[in-house]
Amino acid sequence: MGRLVVVSNRIADPRQTAAGGLAVALAEVLNSTGGMWFGWSGKIVDATESDDVVFKRAGPVTLATVDLSQVDHDAFYLGYSNGVLWPVFHYRLDLADFDAGYITGYRRVNQLFARKLLPLLRPDDILWVHDYHLIPLAAELRALGCRQRIGFFLHIPLPPPLMLAAIPGHDWLIRALFAYDLVGFQSKADLDHFARYVETEAHAQPVDDGRWRAFGRTVQAGAFPIGIDVQEFNELARAPEAVEMYERMRMEYSRRKLLVGVDRLDYSKGLPQRMRAFREFLTKNPDLRSSATLIQIASPSRENVGAYTEILHELESLCGSINGNFGELDWMPVRYIHRTVARARLPGLYRASRVALVTPLRDGMNLVAKEFLAAQNEEDPGVLVLSRFAGAAEQLREALLVNPYDTEGTAAAILLALQMPLEERRNRHRALMETIRRYDVHWWCDGFLVALERTMAEEKGTSWL
Ligand code: GDG
Q1: Of the candidates 419, 422, 426, 423, which has an alpha carbon nearest to the alpha carbon of residue 291?
Q2: Which is nearest to 268 in space by CA: 354, 165, 368, 337?
Q3: Its pathway (predicted)?
Q4: Catalytic (active site) residue 72
Q5: Candidate list 73, 130, 133, 155, residue with the active-site label
Q6: Buried/exposed code over 160-186 (b: 16+ C-beta within 10 A; e: otherwise)
Q7: Which residue ranges of the chain lie beneath pLDDT 50?
Q8: CA 44, 173, 448, 451 torsion: positive or negative?
């Protein structure tokens, strides 16, 4: 296989532990394969400053980054990526802001990436582009003459055709996917939405075995559910920081059962719905009340996007009212932490918790669900309460699956999880561990790259946009 070139909006030093699903997974991948990681530096600069690529060596990986101007950042990142694609792909048309200027900025930054990346490529490189920020990147690269094999992986859900069709320029966006050789989704449901979209909107036909033909091009599409590095996570769980965290939690909560939630503070994660379900549980089970505490870590995210400020206030108000109404002098039902917790401590927190509440309204996969399972003590494991609307629910059938919009149903699942007998907890955990071990991050990466190499070489041409 040629050199691997990974492209994503944000990049991280793969030798350091990063927070965030995509950065963690890609760092794992590149650490084992080596190669180049190209993306935005995270810096916003004056439009007049030089826009040269900056290189940095990080172990076996070359990091190559470009800066963005304020105008480009606002339209590309805040505007189109997080003001249009993120909400619509998470089924929140009501939160989308279809400002016409955003798409121009989105295209401009994808063109900038293509222009800066192309001269760095070698003929036998394999390119792997990640996520919704960069959907048109292959089309822009092809327009400049790029012939290398290019794969694309969407980390977030793909909504059903009629929802996608609400995006002005949706056909342009989906057509751009056909400039890739392989397009990967998190779940079978997402793949099915893609298939239905191209059939109904682009009158495409399935060619054979996951290949689709439309716009005069052929693309291979498949479901490649992302996993975690179970072994690495086990090691993290045995390291001193995690052990210390575990012991502190066990001591502090020796007479109580812990429930845990770890999420970026994002409206897709269903945090207010989760709090309402917990409040319902407290209301319905007065005798169990002070025997459980919910620790909710909501790490700050995209704070300069309006919808995120609203969700922050809603969550703070709910936590405050639950604690105000149910708290005792020596017990608070909710511990809400609006900060990022060090990654090294997370396994200790997961392990000390009897229940994890992973209840997004919509999620591409959700890695927290898998991390929680990997951190458990097999002899006395905790219970995963998982939203049926997380991509992970397609795989993790032995979790307690809930509908997060159903407050009473979720409250009932919380009770069931807290009271689940040891034998049942062990059986469920064993089955779930088998799944996350088999479908780990290496399986995901190898599976995608092998499928990409096997795609039939097709003359992609340059007349793309
Ligand atoms: C996107 C998709 C898909 C969270 N809070 C803290 C922290 N985290 C870490 C978790 C986990 C990661 O961030 C979150 O990953 P998720 O998968 O749960 O969610 P997204 O960030 O939305 O990721 C998602 C993923 O991409 C991968 O494809 O699964 O569906 O939305 O690793 O542990 N880490 C630290 N402190 C925190 O406070 N250190």
Answers
A1: 419
A2: 368
A3: Glycan biosynthesis; trehalose biosynthesis
A4: no
A5: 155
A6: ebebbeebeebeebbbbbbbbbbbbbb
A7: 459, 462, 464-465
A8: negative
C-alpha to C-alpha distance for 27 and 39, rounded to whole angstroms: 13
pTM, to two decimals: 0.95
Task: Report the atom number in ligand 1 closest to the C-alpha of 155.
Answer: 28
- In this prediction, residue 15 carries a pLDDT of 66
- Range 279-285, long-range pairs (CB < 8 A, 24+ positions): 279/318, 279/322, 279/326, 280/407, 280/408, 280/410, 280/411, 281/411, 281/414, 281/415, 282/322, 282/326, 282/333, 284/411, 284/415, 285/415
- Pairwise CA distance, residues 255 & 369, whole Å: 25
Other CB atoms closer than 10 Å to residue 44's CB: what's the count?
A: 15
Q: Going by CA atoms, what residue is nearest to atom 9 of ligand 1?
A: 20
At residue 97, the pLDDT reads 94
Taking CA atoms only, the protein residue closest to ligand 1 atom 33 is: 368
Q: Probe ligand 1: pick from 367, 439, 445, max atoms within 8 Å of CB?
A: 367
Instruction: Please indicate whether residue 367, judged by its CB atom, sits closer than 6 Å to ligand 1.
Output: yes
Mutate which of 264, 301, 441 to test ligand 1's pocket (most atoms within 8 Å of Cβ)? 264
Residue appearing with tokens 């009271």: 419
Whether residue 402 contacts residue 413, with contact meaning beta carbons closer than 8 Å, is answered with yes
130 is catalytic: no
Of 368, 370, 372, 441, the one to substitute when testing ligand 1's pocket (max ligand atoms within 8 A of C-beta) is: 368
What integer pLDDT is reported at residue 458 of this predicted model?
A: 54
> Closest ligand 1 atom to the C-alpha of 20?
13
